[in-house]
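Tokens for chain A. Residues wanted.
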């Protein structure tokens, strides 16, 4: 058939197990990296991605492989995001493939994301090629890592390919395994069109560019296409493939991976996971499992300078053009004025958006502590969802509160099981199962999402000396005895500082927040009280002490350059403060709830 020489695959791995390095080495082996654009980690394109070493967009690339016998193959390598915030995108990218390379670092063995990613691949019925990577490391134990894959996931150890993305050893074997083990795509080019959207981005000239996998049928310019989820139709302008730059082509047939431009103005009309079909002769069944993008973490974003409100709105609109998973709506805070309530897929997504607003749009922002979405049933029977702690009703009006839960999977050496279980208990986790894998353990817990949102990952890493790894998925809502804690500064409630917390934790958290705030609020001529309050009752109190004269004197002595530096630092610091009467509250104070104890 026309697709017998196509192989669509992805590389999946735990973070840092060498996915980007191996992808680059494969590109280099197949001559896809000219000396000119040869640089590390070609597939990680956004500046932020490169800096943080994560992949946010599912960049695909088309490669040509010629076997020793002269047979030519087309490889479509689809990169997947490397963070749990984007796991839905990972599953969609995998659905565009027939196989995966499952990498395991030969010195680390199987980690939490190795398992979760492997199951995503198994759920999509993909052929898995186990690759034990980084075998050049002195601490490598390739046989041990291969055996772990067999013990944990059931992939025969003898199937493993040993390789190093760094030295390139084993890469030719990987290329051969791709041809031999991954099946070519099936699908009838003459059937009605059915194509899966696995990523998209907004282009100012061509509108939304969709990254698609054609499952059935053929797609050409001038075709009329329709989105399965919402019935909206568009005329195809161009189709093509990836080099990884967009290359214009004549058509995309069943089995191929490529892009389509159809003058789509709104990215929300063409969401990841949706199915494209023909308007005239539509397919009967969409590709299963489509979920519209749904933010799960919310935070208020306010300009430190109220003059910047318009500028912030414009920046948010631009970012939203390119990101269907990001949402925002206007919000007013008594304390912070006019701003926006923004929705994200997780904390990393939130950080990325905030960083882009500050860097690319030159905005200074105050961000309120991220919160999950609570479902509240009032005593009058009314049910509503709230992501803003400031809006949380008082206790007498509440019949029931529910909060989102996750299934959390943790891999760790058995020595740390006791401490980690204790941490999970503190986080209201309920153990589901515990599996021994040699000297390591996999723990499966159900935990309130809010409990792992802030500092959980850092705490887990520190109590396990870096050895524990984790991954999670959302599993729906459960009852919770939750309360709203208000924070008062200088005897006034600052609405934007309110947090929702479990009944058993109100005192501890109140204490932590007021202590942190007292530490970061600049001193005044007079002492400033900071209090945590529940329903009018003070549960914790701290004081920002008044200045001592000698502190000032010390600051302003010294040489001129030091003085200048100090002034600059103060100017910068001021930009990220909010004035309440005479008291300035810095950004750090708004995130006091996130600080680790
Ligand atoms: P990713 O997070 O899975 O994309 O991992 P990267 O490709 O960014 O690699 C993570 C780290 O491991 C980097 O410091 C790489 O230089 C290093 N690394 C990747 N592959 C190898 C390898 O085969 N051998 C050795 N020694 N180091 C490697
Ligand atoms: Mg990477």
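Reply:
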């Amino acid at each position: 058939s026309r697709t017998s020489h196509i192989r669509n695959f992805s590389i999946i791995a735990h973070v840092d197990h060498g996915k980007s390095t191996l992808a680059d080495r494969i590109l280099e082996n197949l001559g896809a990296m000219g000396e000119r654009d040869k640089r590390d980690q070609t597939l990680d394109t956004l500046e932020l991605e490169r800096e943080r070493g994560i992949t946010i967009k599912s960049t695909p690339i088309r490669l040509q492989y010629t076997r020793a016998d002269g047979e030519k193959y087309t490889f479509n390598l689809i990169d997947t995001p490397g963070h749990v915030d984007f796991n839905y995108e990972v599953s969609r990218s995998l659905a565009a493939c027939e196989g995966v390379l499952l990498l395991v670092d030969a010195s680390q063995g199987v980690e939490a994301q190795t398992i979760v990613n492997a199951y995503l691949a198994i759920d999509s019925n993909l052929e898995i090629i186990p690759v034990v990577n980084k075998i050049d490391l002195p601490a490598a134990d390739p046989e041990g890592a291969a055996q772990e894959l067999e013990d944990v996931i059931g992939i025969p150890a003898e199937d493993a390919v040993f390789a190093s993305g760094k030295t390139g050893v084993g890469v030719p074997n990987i290329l051969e395994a791709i041809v031999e083990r991954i099946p070519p795509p099936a699908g009838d080019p003459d059937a009605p069109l059915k194509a899966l959207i696995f990523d998209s981005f907004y282009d100012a000239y061509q509108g939304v560019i969709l990254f698609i996998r054609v499952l059935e049928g053929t797609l050409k310019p001038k075709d009329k296409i329709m989105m399965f989820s919402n019935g909206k139709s568009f005329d195809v302008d161009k189709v093509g493939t990836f080099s990884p730059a967009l290359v214009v082509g004549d058509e995309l047939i069943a089995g191929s991976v490529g892009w389509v431009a159809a003058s789509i103005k709104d990215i929300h009309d063409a969401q990841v996971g949706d199915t494209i079909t023909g308007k005239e002769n539509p397919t009967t069944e969409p590709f299963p499992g489509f979920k519209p993008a749904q933010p799960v973490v919310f935070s208020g974003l306010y300009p430190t300078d109220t003059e910047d409100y318009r500028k912030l709105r414009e920046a948010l609109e631009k970012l939203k053009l390119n990101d269907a998973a990001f949402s925002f709506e206007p919000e007013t805070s008594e304390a912070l004025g006019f701003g926006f309530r923004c929705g994200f897929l997780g904390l990393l997504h939130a950080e990325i958006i905030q960083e882009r607003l500050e860097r690319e749009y030159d905005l200074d922002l105050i961000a309120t502590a991220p919160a999950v979405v609570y479902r509240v049933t009032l005593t009058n029977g009314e049910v509503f969802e709230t992501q803003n702690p400031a809006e949380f009703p008082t206790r007498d009006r509440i019949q029931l509160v529910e909060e989102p839960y996750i299934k959390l999977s943790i891999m760790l050496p058995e020595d740390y099981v006791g401490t980690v279980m204790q941490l999970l208990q503190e986080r209201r986790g309920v153990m589901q199962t515990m599996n021994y894998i040699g000297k390591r353990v996999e723990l499966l817990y159900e935990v309130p999402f809010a409990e792992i949102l802030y500092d959980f990952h850092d705490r887990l890493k520190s109590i396990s000396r870096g050895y524990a790894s984790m991954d999670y998925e959302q599993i729906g809502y459960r009852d919770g005895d939750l309360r709203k804690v208000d924070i008062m500064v200088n005897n006034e409630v600052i609405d934007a500082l309110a947090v929702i917390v479990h009944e058993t934790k109100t005192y501890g958290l109140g204490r932590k927040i007021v202590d942190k705030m007292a530490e970061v609020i600049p001193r005044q001529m007079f002492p400033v009280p900071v209090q945590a309050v529940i329903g009018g009752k003070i549960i914790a109190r701290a004081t920002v002490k008044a200045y001592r004269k000698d502190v000032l004197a010390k600051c302003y002595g010294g040489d001129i350059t030091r003085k200048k530096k100090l002034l600059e630092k103060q100017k910068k610091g001021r930009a990220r403060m909010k004035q309440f009467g005479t008291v300035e509250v810095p950004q750090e104070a708004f995130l006091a709830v996130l600080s680790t104890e």
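The first strand starts at residue 6 and ends at 13. The mean pLDDT is 88.
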